[in-house]
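Field log, afternoon session.

UNIT: design team B
ACTIVITY: writing a sequence onto a fixed backbone
BACKBONE:
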């Protein structure tokens, strides 16, 4: 999780190795009151997303998170970044993402590379 210095938006990032679970997590977030503007999804069926790490940096993720998640997306992962305006929203999003199998560190820091694989 990163806090944007320019405003009070909290970000929580979660990696999915199953695109269907990522889609269901998005639906769960919508049912919990998150708008489509609050949820960003990144993934590709083949190839890579050019400059994804720079995009994630611009969204407020740390350099290590941005590099890690960009590499995972290159390998077929789907990244969801949820923008929460309050700490309670962040906690709700974290619970929903974990329930759907999203991978994230407990403290919001980047996951070790060993966490790759099919869920």
């Amino acid at each position: 999780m990163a806090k944007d210095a320019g405003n009070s938006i909290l970000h929580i990032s979660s990696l999915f190795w199953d695109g269907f679970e990522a889609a269901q997590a998005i639906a769960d977030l919508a049912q919990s009151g998150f708008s489509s503007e609050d949820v960003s999804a990144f993934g590709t069926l083949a190839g890579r997303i050019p400059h994804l790490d720079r995009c994630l940096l611009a969204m407020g993720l740390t350099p290590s998170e941005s590099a890690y998640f960009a590499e995972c997306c290159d390998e077929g992962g789907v990244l969801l970044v949820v923008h929460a305006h309050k700490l309670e929203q962040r906690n709700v999003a974290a619970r929903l993402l974990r329930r759907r199998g999203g991978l994230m560190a407990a403290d919001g820091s980047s996951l070790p590379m060993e966490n790759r694989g099919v869920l």
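LOG NOTE: The CA atoms of residues 72 and 114 lie 11 Å apart.
NEXT ACTIVITY: expression trials, pending approval
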